[in-house]
Design a protein that fits this description.
The structure holds two protein chains of two kinds. By secondary structure, chain A is of the alpha/beta class. Helices cover 24% and strands 27% of the residues of chain A. Chain B has eight helices and 13 strands. In chain B, strand 4, helix 2 and strand 5 form a beta-alpha-beta unit. Classes of the chains: A alpha/beta, B alpha/beta.
Chain lengths: 376, 277
């Protein structure tokens, strides 16, 4: 914490402006998989560019890997002023401790700490960011959906040492309590201020091949104790069908489908579409009717398809938060008071075992008509 | 076979967002009125801890931090097979963020050590950060396996499968090690293994209860209060805004014949644009 001449005053008096030392730099920790920079990194660069401009600092990107080649230059193309490259065979695949070592060592070389460090809220970012934040004993906000820069007045006398007016704070904004609230979280007392951002939310800059940036190699000093964990095998699942986060159309089933067999019917509906998958509520995953990878909601995946069919899903808040940003939501439920109708755009009150077959029938009919039209 | 293990599992009591009580219409939680429950993710961590105990023998200690009612979930853990519960309860812990929570819990862990394995839920349903586990691992200088969905013991190492984007990886790590358990971990049913009579007896008999559930303060675990609670937290929630749920304008069809309702939906939505050609 910064040393200040803060006084414990009895009388309310104007808050003193306080600035925690930093070099105003915003650093993005890139994520690569098999040597390919992951989309969340470009999203972070887009968000980071805006923050750096508001702070009047530079936007940097740190990338760890082995022989990343042309991928490094892409980080400049997407907005970085400087790219710090840690190139080492032991950094080829992500592992917590070697990555943590290189990043902590590097950030410790700064005379004034960077202002902001951001990572993606992926299985990698959420594994790594807390270790770095805990090492520097600085604040970290998980899974942000908005970032901004602004001032903050701390007036809470319960913690008098922190009183003051802080300019240039990172506003880390994230949903909370089942996404019914947005919380603005900040921590201007320590730098770097850290956050992870939810993949698919921030907007990358348009790539600009003419952008100039510096590529700076950095030191790698991995220690023996960093090898306490080894990666034996990486398996990318070739899922039959499409991942629920990538599908344009999701046919989601809840307890109302009455059993594992019910999902066969939903699959038939999914088969009518080009890029569709079945999905499920937590209850049916817990019941073992369908694997976890299909689960939508707070403890499953957040999805945003163009069309979301909710079949026999009552729509608890924990489910709604995982799908309420979908394009068109169509709910099919016997119970007209089911909460799913509060987020749906269209609803059919009825038995899904009558409605879904009818949907399939009419969609197949529509398809024939379309084909006939193209023939004419 | 290896020697008996000392296994720790970290659990948290959270508001039951599925229950109606204490949930305000806007989705916020009235913590005083809300029903409380064990964080659902922590059940997987507890199952994992009990699985290790089955393999190695030894003891499972359940650790929690929170106000006195949080002892309920320690009792629940004992009902399911844990041997001991420790509750870190202290007013000076109020308003702890993840860093301060991790500091306090790592002191509690050192207080009850030794240990070979520490299990945590992947995240909590009231905070959703997934940060406390890795932050504790950093404090204790341990390797960590987050998003673990399957594992086995191989000598002094744990072999584990962890979820990654679009797949999974197999890793092995030296012990001691901290693992956060994903909800895709499904080894056994979550069921009580101790008779409820024994638990009822524990509940009624404070003397018996105090033998298996210990409540400790920051002083007991020699934690520095400056690093806990509001003072020890580098972040604060500066403000919250309600998010209006989109929708609220559902066009619902009811009481007509199914074919008409389906036809109407298909005619008023872009569904047909996504058909296979």
């Amino acid at each position: 914490m910064s040393n200040t001449d803060d006084k414990k005053t009895q009388q309310p008096e104007p808050l003193q402006e306080r600035i925690t030392p930093s070099n105003k730099e915003v650093i993005i920790i890139a994520e690569q998989s098999d040597g390919i920079i992951q989309p969340v990194t470009y999203e972070l660069l887009g968000a980071g560019r805006d923050l750096a401009n508001k702070l009047g600092g530079q936007l940097s990107c740190m990338v760890l890997g082995e022989s990343l080649g042309a991928e490094v230059q892409k980080l400049v193309t997407y907005g970085a002023d400087e790219v710090y490259v840690a190139d080492h065979p032991e950094l080829k695949n992500y592992r917590t401790l070697p990555y943590r070592r290189v990043i902590v060592d590097f950030l410790s070389t700064f005379e004034l700490p960077p202002h902001i460090v951001l990572l993606g809220s992926t299985t990698t970012g959420r594994d790594l960011a807390p270790r770095i934040a805990a090492h520097f004993e600085t604040g970290l906000t998980a899974d942000c959906t908005e970032l901004d820069i602004g001032p903050y007045e701390h007036t809470n006398k319960a913690d008098p040492e922190k009183l003051g007016l802080y300019p240039g704070c990172l506003y880390a904004i994230r949903p909370s309590f089942g996404e019914s609230l947005k919380a603005r979280i900040l921590g201007p007392w320590n730098n770097p201020q850290m956050a992870t951002t939810r993949p698919g939310v921030m907007i990358p800059l348009p790539p600009d091949e003419s952008r100039q940036g510096k590529i700076i190699p950095i030191a790698v000093n991995i220690q023996q104790e960093d090898f306490r964990l080894k990666v034996d095998e990486i398996v990318r699942e070739i899922t039959e069908g499409i991942s629920i986060t990538d599908a344009d159309v999701l046919i989601a089933g809840g307890y109302g489908v009455n059993g594992a067999e019910g999902f066969e019917l939903l699959k038939q509906l999914a088969d009518c579409f080009d890029n569709a998958s079945i999905a499920a509520s937590r209850k049916v995953v817990d019941a073992g009717w369908i694997p976890y990878k299909y689960q939508v909601g707070q403890t499953g995946k957040t999805v945003r398809p163009k069309i979301y069919f909710a079949c026999g899903i009552s729509g608890a808040i924990q489910h709604r938060v995982g799908m309420n940003k979908s394009g068109t939501i169509i709910a099919i439920n016997k119970d007209p008071d089911a909460p799913i109708f509060t987020v749906a755009d269209h609803g059919i009150v009825g038995d899904l075992y009558q409605v879904v077959p009818e949907l399939i029938k009419q969609l197949k009919g529509a398809n024939v008509t379309q084909e006939e039209k193209t023939l004419v | 076979m290896s020697k008996p293990f000392d296994i720790l599992v970290l659990i948290k009591q959270v508001p039951d967002q599925g229950a109606k009580a204490g949930i305000n219409p806007d989705g916020t939680i009235d913590r005083a009125k809300a029903k409380r429950m064990m964080n659902p993710f922590d059940r997987y961590a507890l199952q994992a801890a009990l699985h290790v105990k089955k393999l190695t023998g030894g003891t499972v200690k359940a650790l929690s931090m929170g106000p006195p009612p949080a002892a309920e979930i320690l009792l629940e853990a004992i009902e399911h097979g844990a041997d001991m519960g420790y509750l870190l309860s202290d007013r000076r812990l109020a308003a702890s963020d993840t860093l301060a929570t991790a500091y306090a819990l790592h002191k509690l862990i050192l207080h009850v050590s030794p240990f070979q394995m520490i299990f945590c839920g992947l995240q909590t349903t009231d905070g959703d950060t997934a940060q406390v586990g890795p932050q504790i691992a950093e404090r204790l200088n341990l390797p960590q396996i987050s998003y673990c969905e399957d594992f086995s013991l191989e000598g002094d190492q744990v072999k584990a499968r962890r979820v990654i984007e679009g797949g999974y990886q197999w890793v092995h790590a030296d012990l001691p090690c901290l693992m956060t358990v994903a909800n895709s971990y499904h080894p056994l049913e979550y069921k009580k293994i101790r008779g409820s009579q024994k638990v009822q007896h524990l509940v009624r008999n404070e003397n018996e209860k105090s033998k298996v559930i210990k409540t400790v303060t920051l002083d007991d675990i020699e934690a520095d209060p400056i690093l806990c609670g509001l003072k020890g937290s580098p972040t604060i929630v500066a403000r919250t805004d309600k998010v209006a749920e989109i929708g609220g304008s559902c066009k619902t069809r009811q009481g007509q014949s199914v074919d008409l309702m389906v036809k109407d939906v298909l005619e008023t939505t872009p569904v047909k644009e996504f058909l296979k050609l």
